[in-house]
Amino acid sequence: MSVIKVDAELVERYILELGKFGAWGDTGVWRPVYTPEWISARDQFASWCEEAGLHVHQDAVGNVWGRLDGSESGKSIVSGSHIDTQKPGGRYDGALGALGALIAIRTLKEQFGQPRRTLEAVALCEEESSRFAANFWGSRAIIGAIAPGDPDRIVNEDGESIAEAMRAIGLDPDRCAEAKRDDIEAFLELHIEQGPVLEQAELPVAVVSGIAGVRVYRVVLNGTANHAGAFPMDLRSDPMAGFVEIAQTLTENARRLGRPVVTTIGQVFAEPNGPTIIPSRVEFTVDARHVDTDAYHQLLASHEQVIRDIASKHGLGIELDWFIDHEPSPSDPNIVRVLEEGASEQGIPFMTMPSGAAHDAQQMAEITNIGMVFVRSKDGRSHTPEEYSSVDDMTAGIKLLASGLHKLAY
Amino acid sequence: MSVIKVDAELVERYILELGKFGAWGDTGVWRPVYTPEWISARDQFASWCEEAGLHVHQDAVGNVWGRLDGSESGKSIVSGSHIDTQKPGGRYDGALGALGALIAIRTLKEQFGQPRRTLEAVALCEEESSRFAANFWGSRAIIGAIAPGDPDRIVNEDGESIAEAMRAIGLDPDRCAEAKRDDIEAFLELHIEQGPVLEQAELPVAVVSGIAGVRVYRVVLNGTANHAGAFPMDLRSDPMAGFVEIAQTLTENARRLGRPVVTTIGQVFAEPNGPTIIPSRVEFTVDARHVDTDAYHQLLASHEQVIRDIASKHGLGIELDWFIDHEPSPSDPNIVRVLEEGASEQGIPFMTMPSGAAHDAQQMAEITNIGMVFVRSKDGRSHTPEEYSSVDDMTAGIKLLASGLHKLAY
Fold first, then answer.
1. What is the residue-level pLDDT of chain B in tens, covering all 410 positions?
2. Which of A6, B80, B211, B409 could form a Cys-Cys staple with B122, CB 3.0–4.6 A?
3. Are B314 and B237 in contact (CB under 8 A)?
C-alpha cells in the first residue's frame, strides 16, 4: 500500500488548541464532563469533524461521532477515546485518541477517498471519573451497560447527580439507553502509553496485545490498640504488622513474577494512627493486574491466600472485598496482525506489548473486536500536567492507526 | 517489720470519686490540665491530703503537694503521679499513683506516726499531653526543665497557649521556675502496668527495674507517583514498597530479639493515597524501646541502618529524624531492693520487670533516685475508658509502695 501522509502540523495544532479548553497552568488540563470547558472541547471536536467532511452527531450521553460513510452497507469501523481529563491531567491522555481518530479518518478520506466500510471517529465522555464516580460512562452507554436509574444514583461530592448535570446541558438522562450501538465491527483506540516501556525501548509506538485484567481489593485488618511501650511484641494483635507483612509479600511476589504482572498498594489508612499506639485497624488497597486470563486468576488466588494466611498468623480480624474488577481483554488477533503489518509497511519501528492501564476499549470489547496503539510517554508520566508525547511520536501513532483503519475499511 | 494495713474501701472510694471529675461514659475520664474538671480533681486531692493531716501547697505550675514532716531535717522521700488523663482515658492511669501515694503516707502516719524523713505525696499535672503538646509538664517543672518562654511557645490546636491557660486559673506562667526542687532524696511512682505481662504471670504487682529508653522516628520516603497499571514493577520508585519492606524488617527484627525490645509502626500517611496510583510519598513513625542503655543504642543503630539501606535499595529519597528521645532510666538499685524486700515481708507475690512506657519518674530521674511499682492491668489496656485494675491489686500495690516508703523514711 501507499505511504500514508499525516500532517504533523495539524496534529500539533489540534492537541494544543483542544488543551486550551480547561487549561490548567502551563501544560495541564482540568476538564470535567458536562462543564463549560468540556462543552467547548466537544463543540471544537464536532466542528473539526465537520471541517473534515464527516457527518456529525451527538448521542444520548454526549459522545460525539464523526461518520464517513462507506460504499458498502455493514457495521462501522470505529476509533476514538475520551476528552474528559484527570483533575488536573495533561493534554494527551484521551485527547490524543479522539483527535487521532479524526485526523486518521480525515487523512484517509483526503488520500484514498470514500472507504468501502463506514469509518467513525468518536470523542467519548467521562472515562476518568472526572466529575462523577462514573468512569467509562460514554463507552458504557455505547455497550448498553447503563441501567435505568443509574444517572440519578450517581452523585458526586457536591451532592449533584449525573442526571442533573446532563439536564443542565440539555441531555435527557432517561434516554441513555439510546446511545447503545450494535453495529460496530471493530474499535481501535490510540492512547499514550502512560508507562516507561516504550521510552526505555526507544520506540515511538506499540501495538497493544491486550488490556490487563485488574482487580482492586479493599482489605481491613482488625486488631487491638495498645500501648506501644508496655505491650510486648509477642502478645500483640497488631494490624500494622499484619499489613506490612502482607504488602511486602504481595509486592515481592509480583516483582519475582516479573512483567506484565503488577501489584500496587496505593492507599492505606491506620487507626488511631498515633506514633506511640499500636493501631486497632488498618485499611488498605491492593491493585493486581495481568493480561493473561489464566495467569490473572492465579495471581488473584495467590494474593488472596497470602492476605488470609498472614492475617490469620497475626490473629487479626479481616474484611476482604473488591471494588474494581475487570477481566483481561485480549486484542482481536486480526486487528493486532493488521496493525503490525501496517507498522512494517509504513516504516514505523514498534513493539507489541500489553496495556496495564484500563481503557474505553476494554468496555467496547463487550460488543466488538478491539485493538489499541500506544504512543511513547515522556518519563512514563500520565494523569498529571507533566505528561508529554512528542509531535513526531503522536504523528507516527496516528499514521499507524490510519494504516490499520485503511486495511479494515478500504 | 509489721504488716501494713491499707484500707481497701478507701482505695476504691478515692478512685471512684476522683473519676467523677471529667467522667466520660460509664468508666472513662476526660480531664485535660487546667480545665474545670482538672481543678475539681486537684482540689479534691488537696482536700484529702488535708484530711490526712498533711501540709498542702500548690507549686507554680499546679502540682499539688501533701507533706508529712520528718523528725530529722534532710531531703524528702516523694511519691506520686499525674491526675490529667488521655482524651478519653480511664480512672487508673496516673490517678492511682497520686491517690496511692496519699493513701500510703496516710496509712504510714496512722500506723507508725511521724517519720524520720519527710514524706510527700504529689499530684502532677499534664503528663499525658492532655491539652497541650507539653507532656511531663509537671515533673519537668520540678526538675527545672521548663525554659522561660516555653509557656507562651506551647500552643494547642485551638490556638491557646499554655501560658494563657495558666493565667485563666490564677497561675503565673512567668514563675514556672519556682516549681524546681533540689531537696528530693527519692521518687517512687505507683502506676498501672498498661501491658499484659502481670496478668499473664498471674501476679498483682511488680517492682520496676527501670524505664525503657524510647526514640520515636519520623521517616519520609520520596518516590514518584505513577500509574499502577502502566508502570512495570522493575521501573518503579515506589515509597510504599520501601515502607512496607522497612516496617516488616524492623518489626521482624524486634520480634526476634524478644522482650523487652519493642518496635511499633503506629502512624502512616501516603500521598496521593489513591487505590490505582503508585504513591509519591510515604511518611511513617517508628517507636523503638529498650531498657538497657547499650542494647537500646544498638537497636537504634540497627534500625537506622535498615531504614537507610532499604530506602537506598528502592532508589527513594529519605528524611529521617526523631521527635521523642528519652534515654533508659534504670531504677535505683537500693529502691529496687527495698521494694523487693518489702513485697516479701508483706507477703505480696511479685515479679521484677522493666517499664516499656514512659512515666514522670523518668523525668524525676534527672534529679533524684527513682523506683516504681506496677499494678496489674486487665487485658493490658490503658489510655481507654476500658482500663481496669481490681481493688485487691491496687491495694496490694499501695501496700508495697507504703512498705518501700516505710523503709526509706522511718
1. 689 999 999 999 999 999 999 999 999 999 999 999 999 999 999 999 999 999 999 999 999 999 999 999 999 999 999 999 998 999 999 999 999 999 999 999 999 999 999 999 999 999 988 899 888 999 999 999 999 999 999 999 899 999 999 999 999 999 999 999 999 999 999 999 999 999 999 999 999 999 999 999 999 999 999 999 999 999 999 999 999 999 999 999 999 999 999 999 999 999 999 999 999 999 999 999 999 999 999 999 999 999 999 999 999 999 999 999 999 999 999 999 999 999 999 999 999 999 999 999 999 999 999 999 999 999 999 989 999 999 999 999 999 999 999 999 99
2. B80
3. yes
d(CA B81, CA B97): 5
Q: Where are the beta strands (DSSP E) in A280-398?
A: 281-290, 317-326, 329-330, 350-355, 369-375
Q: Do A230 and B278 touch (CB under 8 A)?
A: no
Interface probe with B: pick from A214, A233, A245, A325, most Cβ of B within 10 Å: A233
A-B contacts (CB, under 8 Å): 228
Cα–Cα dist A76/A349, whole Å: 28
Distances, alpha carbon A197 to alpha carbons A58, A93, A236, A386, B338, in Å: 36, 16, 44, 17, 71
Chain B residues touching residue A228 (CB < 8 angstroms): 262, 264, 266, 287, 289, 356
Dmax over Cα atoms in chain B, in whole Å?
81
Please state, as a whole number, how many other Cβ atoms lie within 10 Å of the Cβ of residue A257: 17
User: Coil, strand or helix: which one is B64?
Assistant: strand
ipTM given for this complex = 0.90
Cα separation, A187 vs A179, whole angstroms: 16
Amino acid code (one letter) for A99: L
Report all structural domains of chain B as residue ranges with CATH numbers, in order of start: 8-211+329-409 (3.40.630.10), 213-326 (3.30.70.360)
User: Are B366 and B145 in contact, with CB atoms under 8 Å apart?
Assistant: yes
Whether the model clears a pTM of 0.80, i.e. scores above it, the answer is yes
* C-alpha distances in Å from residue B113, one per residue of A68, A248, B69, B119, B339: 109, 64, 11, 12, 21
